[in-house]
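Before a colleague's protein record goes any further, I have to sign it off. Would you go through it and say whether the fold makes sense for this chain? Take the sequence as given and treat only the tokens as open to question. The record follows directly below this note.
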Amino acid sequence: MPNSGENVKIKAKKVPKFVTGKILRDAVK
């Protein structure tokens, strides 16, 4: 799902790095 990946990258740019890390970890689970 390319769109999903793009949305994650866009959100990652708008939030602090530690929040991004949490989102990425949650996405992996």
